[in-house]
Amino acid sequence: MFGARCLLRALRSCSSAPCPRHKPTAKLSVRDALGAQNASGELVKVQGWIRSVRSQKEVLFLHVNDGSSLESLQVVADSSFDSRELAFGSSVEVQGQLVKSLSKRQNVELKAEKIEVVGNCDAKAFPFKYKERHPLEYLRQYPHLRCRTNVLGSILRVRSEATAAIHSFFKDSGFVHIHTPVITSNDCEGAGELFQVEPSSKIKVPEENFFNVPVFLTVSGQLHLEVMSGISYTEAVEILKQASQNFTFTPEWGADLHTEHEKYLVKHCGDIPVFVINYPLALKPFYMRDNEDSPQHTVAAVDLLVPGVGELFGGSLREERYHFLEQQLARSGLTEAYQWYLDLRRFGSVPHGGFGMGFERYLQCILGIDNIKDVIPFPRFTHSCLL
Amino acid sequence: MFGARCLLRALRSCSSAPCPRHKPTAKLSVRDALGAQNASGELVKVQGWIRSVRSQKEVLFLHVNDGSSLESLQVVADSSFDSRELAFGSSVEVQGQLVKSLSKRQNVELKAEKIEVVGNCDAKAFPFKYKERHPLEYLRQYPHLRCRTNVLGSILRVRSEATAAIHSFFKDSGFVHIHTPVITSNDCEGAGELFQVEPSSKIKVPEENFFNVPVFLTVSGQLHLEVMSGISYTEAVEILKQASQNFTFTPEWGADLHTEHEKYLVKHCGDIPVFVINYPLALKPFYMRDNEDSPQHTVAAVDLLVPGVGELFGGSLREERYHFLEQQLARSGLTEAYQWYLDLRRFGSVPHGGFGMGFERYLQCILGIDNIKDVIPFPRFTHSCLL
Description:
- The structure is a homodimer.
- Helix content of chain A is 23%, strand content 24%.
- In chain A, the strands form 4 sheets. In chain A, strands 2-3-4-6-5 form a 5-stranded mixed β-barrel. A 4-stranded mixed beta sheet of chain A has the order 7-11-12-15.
- Chain A has 10 helices and 15 strands.
- Chain A has helices at 4-13, 30-34, 136-139, 150-172, 222-227, 273-277, 302-305, 317-331, 339-346, 359-367, and strands at residues 26-28, 40-55, 59-65, 73-78, 91-100, 108-119, 176-177, 183-184, 195-199, 215-217, 246-252, 263-269, 288-290, 299-301, 354-358.
- The termini of chain A are far apart.
- Chain A is of the alpha+beta class.
């Protein structure tokens, strides 16, 4: 038997207590290095990209940034370290002593003892130049490199935080997150301006059509969220505290929007009245209407004010809405295709409503970024699908 | 001036203290009603779908469920309430007194004083029948109604919770969430079995090709995550505590997988060694290899063990890898198309690695669900794209 005493001994023998000889050098992010209080010569290791190189007679100054901070860390090295490889854009690992800086420009600096170039940078070919402030339009030509700049790195971090905050908000409010489909056989908003999806010629399928029906990139997850209103009965007008409603955060496509073909929409089924009624004008999606009377000139979701496809139907209106919808579909020859949507109203429907928010428009608004292409990691638009 | 005293008075006059005459009936979820301690006749309102109807001479029993609980709430009503409309599947709003139940089957029940049918259900046409336990295969035919069942409602709730947990895990570990694109001009894994995306015939574009190049539904966001390794320098092998790495949770498509055409993959750039090395065999994606030596027969990510496309390159291997990749691309005539990928290695590359996890496979594993179609809200597969 492997007794407790034996186990303890075994554990001790593989103890992780560091051996003084091989004590590993503490690795610090640039942010942590910059924030170090009372830097007094402790040995640390910092990794990052060279943002500037200044070579003096006896000293070499580097500014190194790893993306953890807008500010870079100043590295001071003996001029013997100077080499061609220490160029703007190269990635390096620097080992040295973190000390108080004599200059007023920074609190701490790293006295290099060892500098290793991890990834060379062909500075001549590198499209970003030392000391130049490249405009966003210029950076847009290099979607594979622009996240290395402070501006795009920051935008993408805010995008990530905003995504998380929206998810938390809905989760904490009792909503169920639904992945609405990207491929659909519906033409939800009747716009007809869709992207069709077909197996490429290399795929061998016996049948002519892979899915039996023509399929498209979705223009809206709205109908699918309506389906999911069956997951829980909660009157939309009662909102939030009543939990569980549902929401999605799925990309949608509209070929009619010539500047944004792949756009994320946060949608939910359920209602947040104040938000919907006094929505900022700057974020107005096409289906919202002006609140001309409001002093701040806000917008409101038509869906909630005028019962429509995503209607709030109740009482005597209910049956009429069903027959109205049935007639509309029959007139357009769509009864068969949308029988499932009629079914939702035939089989114990419940009041529901919702609205969508263009996530990229929202990011533009909070970040003050003019062009939507700069808040999307890999933007796609007419005549461009880079990477 | 609007003084403090005046303001206080104004606030008092619009106080939200309830007027006793119009005291609104408390609305309770079925879960909260069932969990009520010491139910002693308080007036409440409950909404939900009728799950069963049992009509006796003088009493009518209904079971009502709103999705908030697997258990339904028993509603006891005078037989005068009986009506055809109170059918299995209808949605109702019941007002009454929450009382202790005399039966041992439940703690509380609702003595109905008012029952309103909100949404009728055409019980004959409704595909789900009272008291029948429909198999998952049967429910799959009704993707627009199946979320009303306990089983699908539960699966979708677990899916939502699992999504949130994965997001939290990466966020708390300092990863940046990246939305990798759904449309791409790359053929990342070289499989060639792709879904092509083209504007439908209704879109009028002067040029023949909307994006100038053929575009496809992505089969992998891996290369895009590699681009984003430029957002922060963190050696993959140092992991987690070192923060900011990046991850994605974007759907991907492979036409070669005949059972799942729209699948979510959680991917990250960065490394979680234990997870990757001792990954459950049941979740093995194609690119992982068997850990034959491991006692639990786990799998590991090849990417991390054998430097590949998402390689862990360092030291002297680095330059060789670049030239190797360059030669490979030249041989396939892909140098121009993948110049951006070579660029990542030309301009200060940093060590990176990662792996992907099939989210739906993971759900199957934790839920014990045999068919992947049952863990996807709206599954798409060969010959089927419902809704």
